[in-house]
Amino acid sequence: MNSSNDSLAMQRITKLVDENSFMEIGSLVTARNTDFNLADTDTPSDGVITGHGLVDGNLVFVYSQNAAVLNGTIGEMHAKKIAAVYDMAMKMGAPVIGFIDCAGMRLQESVDALNGFGEIYAKEVAASGVVPQISAIFGSCGGGLAVVPALSDFAFMESKGKMFINSPNAIEGNRIEKCDTSSAEFQSEKNGCIDAVGTEDEIIAEIRELVSVLPLNNEGDVYTSECQDDLNRACENMAAMKGDPRYLLSEISDGHVFFETKKNYAKDMVTGFIQLNGMTVGAVANCSEVYDEEGKKAEEFSGALTARGCNKAAEFVNFCDAFEIPVLSLTNVKGYAATVCAEKGLAKALARMTMAFADATCPKVNLITGNAIGSAYVTMNSKAIGADFTYAWEDAKIGMMDGELAAKIMYADASADELAAKAKEYDALQSSVMTAARRGYVDLILDPADTRKYLVDAFELLYTKCAGVPDKKHGTK
């Protein structure tokens, strides 16, 4: 019994992979359980199509749940097929892409279905850091199934999809009309595991683009394409747009291409991938401004680190380090978010981000584009915690605190004119980029227009970096 070629699950696979490249595995598998008349129910492929194909010539393994078969619910054989895909992917060193459209556990199979969930979780954990894992939610993804995209490295969600641990109406004091906690909008902005929302075609196109820039496994090469761009190309308007790192990263990348991750979550911290001379580089950047497609300022942030932003950065850096993808940080930070809400989780999040940067042995470059003030700067991949190179633009400001505040603390009884003079003196002596460079904390001061060529050179040099690590099992954060 073969899977229907016109099923929605198969159509999604066909859109994803190169033409005629998909080979289905396990097409004859059906449900094994016979309780509650399940034996009388037609269950082709037990509700999930699995196999392998090519994306731009790169091998990928795919599973796609078929909601037309028992609502795509997960039973014993359904789970075993997904687990088998993971086993093959790890043997072959290729990414796993999962299309989720499922009503949850199959009630007729009870403990077998529960065990199946556990098998899928275990395979995701085993594959983490070995091969990239990508999930896309096209229908329903509820209860324990929501753990699957959360365990993935990247997760996408169709605009009309639903993702939840508890349904909106099951949350005390809430109704779906009041706050739809299962919506794509809520999950992408508040949850922290959804990278982008869109139509089915948009999501599949983004997944194809993502696969083309990622190494296939943790031993794969980060040179993923041929560079057709000028390596010495001048980058225009960089200083004027330093508040929005999306523009800066697009400007320095080959072909002006920047693939952003977690676009709608913690917008004060930007993460994503660029390419420099064909090499994939992970980027982490502070964001104080967001400009729309017309060049108008759409949003503005304080330039302070937040708990969500730090957690977002830490998770991204850990992914890059696991796959030996070089990391570029763009630092433009004034301090920490100062709210009661921020205090609840900021210290732990800062510790997590600091550990991620300091622990990472992949090539690391820090570019200071604006403010680098206080210990917030230190946590942003500074030379002190392990950056291989630290560059700064000519007008960057690096110091313990703002000159005006420092003057008020040191000269509390001084007049306004004297405070202004002392503030200017403090900035010149303690917060200038030249002061930091003379002490070895900055390796090179750049004209913003020259940023691309110097970053290309830095990562080319660091390509063969080999860093020893202390003998320990793992860190604890």
Structural summary, described in words:
It is a single chain. The chain is an alpha/beta fold and 477 residues long. It folds into 2 domains: 8-211, 2-enoyl-CoA Hydratase, Chain A, domain 1, CATH 3.90.226; 222-464, 2-enoyl-CoA Hydratase, Chain A, domain 1. It has helices spanning 8-16, 76-92, 110-127, 147-151, 184-191, 200-213, 245-252, 307-322, 340-343, 346-359, 374-379, 403-410, 416-430, 433-438, 451-461; strands at 23-25, 48-55, 58-65, 96-100, 133-137, 140-142, 154-158, 162-164, 196-198, 259-261, 269-276, 279-286, 289-291, 297-300, 304-305, 327-333, 335-336, 364-373, 389-393, 397-399, 444-446. The two termini are 49 Å apart. Keywords: Transferase. InterPro entries: AccD/PCCB (IPR051047), AcCoA_carboxyl_beta (IPR034733), ClpP/crotonase-like_dom_sf (IPR029045), COA_CT_C (IPR011763), COA_CT_N (IPR011762).
